[in-house]
Amino acid sequence: MPARSFRSRKERLTFRRSGRSLKMAEAHQAVAFQFTVTPDGIDLRLSHEALKQIYLSGLHSWKKKFIRFKNGVITGVYPASPSSWLIVVVGVMSTMYAKIDPSLGIIAKINRTLDTTGYMSSQTKNIVSGILFGTGLWVALIITMRYSLKVLLSYHGWMFAEHGKMSRATRIWMCMVKIFSGRKPMLYSFQTSLPRLPVPAVKDTVNRYLESVRPLMKDEDFKRMTALAQDFAVNLGPRLQWYLKLKSWWATNYVSDWWEEYVYLRGRGPLMVNSNYYAMDLLYVIPTHLQAARAGNGIHAILLYRHKLDREEIKPILLLGSTVPLCSAQWERMFNTCRIPGEETDTIQHLRDSKHIVVFHKGRYFKVWLYHDGRLLKPREIEQQIQRILDDPSEPQAGEAKLAALTAGERVPWAKCRQAYFGRGKNKQSLDAVEKAAFFVTLDETEQGYREEDPDASMDSYAKSLLHGRCSDRWFDKSFTFIVFKNGKMGMNAEHSWADAPVVGHLWEYVMSTDCFQLGYAEDGHCKGDTNPNIPYPTRLQWDIPEECQDVIETSLNTANILASDVDFHSFPFHAFGKGLIKKCRTSPDAFVQLALQLAHYKDMGKFCLTYEASMTRLFREGRTETVRSCSSESCSFVLAMVDPTQTVKQKLRLFKIASEKHQHLYRLAMTGSGIDRHLFCLYVVSKYLAVDSPFLKEVLSEPWRLSTSQTPQQQVELFDLERNPEYVSSGGGFGPVADDGYGVSYILVGENLINFHISSKFSSPETDSHRFGKHLKQAMNDIMALFGFSSNSRKEFH
């Protein structure tokens, strides 16, 4: 009930609204409105400051709508431009006045049709006819150019050419692509011109599958699997393939929606460790040790990226000398996005805009507005807001400190708890604030990062902190959580369902470079600029969490703690050499590392295993990933030769080159839509819809990936001039182990002389040890390089 006050003989009821903090309200802050109810009527007083803020907020919203509309028009007519319409129409009108009919009689037909109206003069009809024909011609040209570009982009022969050699046909093809690609493309300009992901032939996929498992199976097992596969390819496979072909004609991408739903959203296990992944800060550099300042610059840089994203000013990723575009669809849900738990399946909630973030510190949640006076907060102003949170002495409310553990545990308890306790009142308002925030920020109380005096332990601790933290201090459902540590180090934890790691990596590269090279810091370590005392304080989110819900929180936290404590992580920089020296060996850096991983795994386990390397299918519209089965017969032959003392260096080199070429061929097949696993996965989904059983598909999809690998690409090399700033190298990122008795390995090739590795496994497995595998990997890298005659001294000279 509102408070009542009695003055003279009048009873007054006063309501007040403001954006001020309950504890730290400043006297000069204006309220939005104030009105008093009296027996004489309503006395209404409006605040000019509040009206100004409302006006500026509305202006900002309408600007965004206009920009979206403008970008929609520009993207909609690409590869043409809106101005080209005027050129075409003027050209048509000019030929008409020159008594030349460019329309082959179409303009005359339009003129006769208009003549039936009786409302236009002859000159007006001629002008309207010319404009209508010019517009139609312009639209036809756009459709023709777009279709031609789609046909051109369907050609992938350039990818299978020998490295460094380009045929005349490929050069002509490249020129044609550039001609039809238009000028100054925006982020989504190429989307409608990208080809659809093709459905491979069942027999081709089955044959490639059998080839991939041959080195992993005994003769009897392989014979049995061959019989199952051949029966599937002849009988059930074609029936399932028919439905899949039908879907490929109807849907934009026959894989992506099912992949998102069945691999990610329907998973009922914890997201933490099992699905989410992380990105690290720069390896050696901490530009400021002030936590609030680093958060200020970092948050502002993220928001600058969002601003560019909203305006579609981010350039699309182009391959082959800025010729071949990749799909940009995954950027759409980067911000203002949250995964919402459900009992059977989760959903992804995405908003067009969000004007606040939520910051977590010492078990408390704060809502921070990102705009003031109609503009984005400056870095120093964000630092001021973060410092206010750090200085806030208030204690967490009951159940608040561990609340985020709900997002770290099993999905079903979190879904039921959310429905029962967060569907109304202050809990709903506060949860909405978190889920509808632009992104989530954690001010971590620990100090992390590379320490020269103890590099292994410091990097391992840093990786584990980003991967799972304390299990209750990251909101694992948000599209990403931006984490800033007490000593100024930062990082990111990302949810996987909405996009893959290269998309988050693109954002992260921009944030790190903008933070260091554009925004910078003052001499005292603070963000540049001045504070602004007029900005309202961050608002504490209010919770009323009953004991029953707190019990669920504790259960989720226990589940998450068991999972987190079982993660064995080893993250380390490999300094011996990098891709510069590998390229001197005339081989693919990725193939080199993958073969080193095969050799390391064999030395570690004494056997080969099914290996997953993530590739991408973004050459196609709405493409995501495909699997490269890195363990091949050729790689196994090479590994066996490396551990055989009777084999000569020449024989090992020959087998290495064969295995390397095979790996590159498999990678190219995966990128061009001829992979194995996504096709088999979709056939399996169709079989479930049809309620038919396939022993072959069931066995294929139940095979564990005991070595799961992924390369983190550097996509914006121009942002980091490593020749001038050699210490500004990225640490990359990593993920948890996919199999309970296997390894997860992520790596990034930084510059010419550094490779960062992130290895994960589980302590509970007696077969795995991340540090042991790391030692084998370092040795394998050096052993393979030694085949090419590069000694330690010659590597130092190359550095």
UniProtKB/TrEMBL annotation:
Where this protein primarily resides, as one coarse class? mitochondrion
Report the domain of life of the source organism: Eukaryota
One GO CC term, this protein: mitochondrial outer membrane
Q: Name one GO molecular function term.
A: carnitine O-palmitoyltransferase activity
Domain named Carnitine O-palmitoyltransferase N-terminal: residues: 24-70
| Principal EC category | transferase
| The EC number(s) this enzyme carries | 2.3.1.21
Under the heading PROSITE patterns, the entry gives: ACYLTRANSF_C_1 (PS00439), ACYLTRANSF_C_2 (PS00440)
Q: How does it sit in the membrane?
A: Multi-pass membrane protein
Keywords in alphabetical order: Acyltransferase, Fatty acid metabolism, Lipid metabolism, Membrane, Mitochondrion, Mitochondrion outer membrane, Transferase, Transmembrane, Transmembrane helix, Transport
The answer on whether this UniProt entry bears the keyword Acyltransferase reads: yes
Q: Where are the transmembrane segments?
A: 127-149
Q: What is this protein called?
A: carnitine O-palmitoyltransferase
Every copy of the Choline/carnitine acyltransferase domain together lies at 197-779
Q: Which residues form the active site?
A: 496
UniProt catalytic activity: (R)-carnitine + hexadecanoyl-CoA = O-hexadecanoyl-(R)-carnitine + CoA
Q: In which pathway does it act?
A: Lipid metabolism; fatty acid beta-oxidation
